[in-house]
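Quick one: sequence plus pyridoxal-5'-phosphate SMILES, need structure tokens.
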Amino acid sequence: MELKFDRRSLLKKGLFTLGGVALAPHLTMGAFGNSPQIIDGQGRFYYSPMLREHVIFPAEPAEIKAKLNANENPYGPPMSARKAVADSVYLGNRYAWKEMYELVNKIAKKEGVTEKHIMMGPGSSDLLEKTALVMFMKGGNVVSADPCYMSLIKVAEATGASWKAIPVKKDHSHDLDAMEAAVDSETKLVYICNPNNPTGAVTSASELREFCKRVSKKVPVFVDEAYMELVEGGATESVVDLVAEGYDVIVARTFSKIMGMAGLRIGYMAALPETLDKIQEITRGGMGISYTSIFAAIAAMDDAEFQVMTRKKNTAAKEYLYAELKKMNFDYIPSYTNFVMFPIVWDGKEYLKKMADENVAVRSFDIMDKTWCRVSIGTMDEMKMFVSALKGIS
Ligand SMILES: Cc1ncc(COP(=O)(O)O)c(C=O)c1O
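Reply:
Sure thing.
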């Protein structure tokens, strides 16, 4: 049995109160106004044919000692960005047009495109959603992997599109052949999340590149690279150079992960100017970004030291987690991100409650016939706390 709840009925039931409401946007993988939230017979959020999420209320323990549920960067914001925020707050009575141009210019140089190829947003979620709104206003379908990050898909569906969900392969990478075969005359966009959330798995860069070249001749291909730069050498795997070469590829990036600025809300897309013009005809890029965040972003981009440190510490804490999971005989999906998925033997809700009792916040999903824990990579101390809690309940 599946039940559809809109936001109002969830509020009436108290499911979005207190701890619930604090976590609602990412629990629902995007906040979608009044679009129905489906809860299945087992009280799980239903996202897709393959993906369900276990939730408990309140969603977070009152005191969290290890916050490992939102794939945040525990080291941010960089000191350089903090200083930039403090130094620029006095300018907050003005619109930051000139400074925004400076930031766009910096991003364009980094990505090897012109300023016209860049659209800014308060986080990449905003850009995923705006793209979906514009692309699917007249219906059509969106092709993506299942499971994948649901932000764009949910808005596409709420706008009137249908979703062609293509199961990932056994190794959790995108089934690019099946996705290409699924593109039809009604397809308005293909969405790829690489590395993927919630699996953390990666799809071969060379295969994805060829896929983008072929498929973008028929429909735009949206590649969400939120986690790309968190991995050593990650940036070289990006497909952003295809944008410069004139392919109809849209690449989304965020300052939330590698730059440690999730709460400062800043992200961007690189795409062909004519594709961005369509999106910006009815939406505005960059208007939701505060003066202070623009300065923070400019400072963070110059702070190579912080990015190198984040990559190193993320890798070290992930390696530690892998070793401990192996010792406890847990399998895991090799991750190219700052989170790790591994199958658990407990019921998802029971597991979340046990971890919450230890003041550890994580997530739990059902994918196909398995229940998984998705644990974000925090500091080494947080990972030790997580491992000790896991040992305690094992
Ligand atoms: C794959 C993916 N894309 C986009 C986002 C959105 O990030 P933000 O809106 O903070 O830029 C996230 C957030 O976790 C994500 O996992």
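The CA atoms of residues 81 and 300 lie 6 Å apart. The pocket of pyridoxal-5'-phosphate is lined by residues 71, 123-125, 149, 193, 197, 224, 226, 254, 256, 262, 267 (CB under 6 Å).
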